Amino acid sequence: MGFSLTMVTSGSQNAAPRRVGGSEGPPETADVETSSDAYAARFAGPAGEWMLRVQERILLGWAAAHPGAAVLDVGGGHGQAALPLSRCGHRVTVLGSAPACARRIRGEVDAGRIAFAVGDLVALPYPDRAFDLVIALRLLPHCGRWRTLIAELCRAARQCVIVDYPTVQSVNVLTPALFKAKQRLEGDTRPYAFFRHAAIEAEFGRHGFARAARRPQFLLPMVLHRALKRPGLSAFLEGLGRGAGLTRLLGSPVLLKMSRRAG
Question: Of 56, 76, 121, 222, which has the fewest beta carbons less than 10 angstroms from its beta carbon?
């Protein structure tokens, strides 16, 4: 696979029309890979587990403001959000694009602790404002119809939407130099889009949502932390970046919580 990245600014991609329960194009299937064992292997070992803990702390901190919430996790078969949220008492439904996307959460689904449904990720099969909180992790940068995805996340959410995305306003400016190394380390890295904060927030704004919180996760590229395989060192280096205020300015990927405006 050759190097292929896209920078998305506020003028990129025309907004696509959306329909409840159907889509204007082929179904979005980006979650088939992110729900796979091969994708989970990227987070295997101490370094990967440390990176997931960083993400989980932020996510659970935000979700704590919505105790017992009904949560829709779009494309969340990887379990990175669904599993910890379910353990904390939230009522979680995962929407996958294919039955195979439930593989990594099958035990919780079979036990009735997480609900799983199959549907189009860019035409959610749910009525407006059906869930308190709607989440999509590891999805936005791989979704060609990202504006349609955001519109659907907003439509289904009563209160908040949480997404993550890589940003060009970070050390991701080094991505062309690091992409081949990332492929060698991970084996199956896909091309992906990275975004400007303003482009993402402006699109949410079109649907009546405003930023509640934004947290860049890492100053250094995740591929470097995987290569180091020393979570203690990674945590120390990232602590220096946060203490200096650099992560806030230049960190990526970004977790973003958007809240529905009153009225």
Answer: 56
